[in-house]
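Anyone opening a protein record will find just a pair of labelled lines. A complete record is shown below as an example.
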Amino acid sequence: MLLLSSEDLGSYGCEHQRSSTWLNETCINRGTCNVPCRKEGFDNGTCRSYFTCICSRNCGDGSNPASIS
């Protein structure tokens, strides 16, 4: 059996924040809130509770300049 964590895949990200530009529209379909989240600088967005868009940023992949010493 093969087990993979979401951290390894980066699918859920390590930083989550409610979208500040989501207009409280119905958020049901997969990918619906990706556009506003990407405009806010996040990697993707996930619908929660039908009207909430949660933005996520994948961390630890070296793409975040602040994490480089």
Observations:
- DSSP finds two helices and three strands in the chain.
